Amino acid sequence: MIKIIAKDYSQAVAYLCDKLESELAQFDLFLSKSKDSTTKYITDSIGAQALIMIGSVGDSCTLFADTFNLPMFYDSFAESKVVAYCDFTKTPLPPRHVMDKLCVAPESFNHYAAVYGYQCTCYGEYKKTHVYMIADDLRECSVVYDNYLSADLFKNNNAAQRYVFKVFGLAKNDVLDRLDKLGKFVSRKCETLNLDTKIVLDFPPKCAKNAITDTLTLFKKLFGDYVYASADQSLAKTVVDLLNSLGKTLSTAESITGGLIASNIVDIAGASTVLKEGVVTYSNSSKSSRLSINPHYIDEHGAVSQQVAQEMARGLRKNGSDIAISTTGFAGPAADDGRVGLCYIGIATEKGLSVYKNVFYGDRNSIRSQAANTALYLVLKTITK
After folding, report:
1. For position 263, what pLDDT does the model report?
2. Dihedrals φ, ψ of 286, to 5°?
């Protein structure tokens, strides 16, 4: 997995993503809006194949070194390239404090000579993760990619290639039926639990690139919007990472799920900046007192109803979160009129409120887990729609 971090989706970032997609590389792009989220993403990226930081090279070097308490040094090679660039363009040298930022690097890192401007790309390896700090300039990014980065990252392209996807909302038999339509030369494995499936595709060594491309294209056609990640990560982590990147907060009002949604989120590092509150409004009186739902309204429609799920989400969002989730349903083992597994999930945002009716199958805890997973998936779809 290749990790990319930048402040904005610039031309340089778009170019890099296009190049990685053409190599069929697995990568993750994180657009950071705060120093804390940037630091966390950098920390979590160690262990990946590569971390690419797009932006001010000097700022990236300093932040990376500060994150891991690495000493910094002044690179005279970078200074010579800045001087050469200024001589060639007949521009004055930057002042000393700017030079200090342009020419520093974490210990054991080095600089490539810049071609456009005087921000020399800084590169190195930290705990087996290749790290690149590249200027947010399309031309410079293309030079670095073509001359250094692609050769470094894809020098072992003849090895067996593995792709991992996470898919939600399909029964295992349905997943297997769709996988059967892929070519016989690719091996496939899948694990499904509570509607959440991990799919692993392994292509043989020296497999033709067009065969891999055609297979992955067919895979995306077969699974479409059911795919929520191209890496082995949970729904909760996908939601937390996305909300962090957008600076959004989430609250939950849970009945049938009994706090599972909030618990899944809290399991993920970085949840503190995302989860505003989680309440378990299990009883009708709690729904009324905590979410300001008229008890007569609950009596009229029933606690397990589209109307009550809607009012739960509406009442919760009044407390100030960007997104509110509500769940109400029958987990079993018994229910009114035999409606075990019936569940309503409400998703409220500033743009509107939707309620989704679901019927889940299985034992009590499986139904609750399916409901919690579905709620997280609906948050993803609501945000990315």
Report:
1. 95
2. -70, -40
